[in-house]
Structures are given as C-alpha cells and as structure tokens.
Specification:
mainly beta, twelve-stranded parallel sheet, 173 residues, single chain, eight-stranded mixed sheet
C-alpha cells in the first residue's frame, strides 16, 4: 500500500481516480487531479512546498517531485509525463510536456506546453522553455522544435498511463 501521510498539518488531497503504486509516497501539501498516477518508488513530497498536479499526469518509476521551503512550489499541468528517475524541483511544467528519463528540472524553471526535456538533461533554475521546444544536454539548451512524430507520440502518452494503471486495480496476492 502506498505511503500517503500529512506533513506540517497538511494532508494530500487525491482525486478518487488517482492510482498510486504500492511503494509510491505522497506526502504533505499535494493536490492531485483525476486519473493521475504515481508509479513504483516515485516520491511526491509536498512537505516543504505545495505541489499541484493536474489530470492524467504520470509520475513514473523512481521520479521525485519536490520544492524549496518558502522559495518554490511545483505545478504539473494536465497530461504531463515525468519519466523514470526524473526530478522536478520547484518548477512549472505546462500541459502535455514530457520530462525525459533521468532529467532534472530545477526551481522556477517553466517548461512550455507540449515541450520535451530530453533524457538526462539538466534544466537550470529559472530557465524558460517555450511551447513545443526540445531541450537536451547538461546544462539543457534548445535543440529545436518537437517533431510532428514526437508530438503525436506525446499526445497519447498520458492516456496510455491511465490505461496502464487499470492493469493493477483490484490486484491482490
């Protein structure tokens, strides 16, 4: 069973359709909307700063969502995908964006709608990424626009994760 606990007197507020993996952790001031999912070993830690998660957001295995005390909070808008082992720390990720596996997005960064932060990229604090842009590297730099093919793939990722969660519902050993 997932760990869902209050911190500093604030409890997670999870829509009834949210799915949490058995070893996921959701702590403190976290609001999570319909059909969002938090996968195996992922941590959503709203103990020091608020976290707002929209609809159909998938926070994949090992990812960490956090913020900085009295300095930043985290927003993941609808249909955002946060890849395996990625970190989103005090940033605003807009609708339909993808944060690649192992990427790091730091405080006060803004990731535009339908943008992609490539696997392993590090988006420095305060960086603003425009809509539909592709960023990669350490530190991350603009590498162009998201291709039509990738845009189509992105548009189905959030829906696929909603489906994947149904595979685990009502599972008992």
């Amino acid at each position: 069973m997932a760990t869902v606990i209050p911190a500093r007197g604030k409890c997670p507020n999870l829509h009834e359709t949210v799915w949490l993996a058995p070893n996921a952790a959701v702590v403190g001031e976290v609001d999570m909307d319909a059909q969002s999912t938090v996968w195996f070993s992922a941590v959503v830690r709203g103990d020091v700063a608020p976290i707002r998660i929209g609809e159909r957001v998938n926070i994949q295995d090992g990812a960490v969502i956090h913020g900085t005390f009295e300095k930043s909070h985290t927003v993941l808008e609808n249909d955002v995908s946060v890849g395996h082992n990625a970190i989103v720390h005090g940033a605003h990720v807009k609708k339909g964006a993808l944060i690649g596996m192992g990427a790091v997005v730091m405080d006060h960064a803004v990731i535009g709608e339908r943008s992609v932060v490539a696997a392993g990229a590090v988006v420095l604090a305060g960086t603003e990424i425009g809509n539909g842009e592709l960023w990669a590297g350490v530190p991350a730099k603009r590498r162009g626009m998201v291709s039509d093919e990738l845009r189509e793939h992105l548009s189905s990722t959030a829906a696929r994760y909603v489906e994947y969660a149904t595979w685990f519902q009502d599972q008992t050993l």
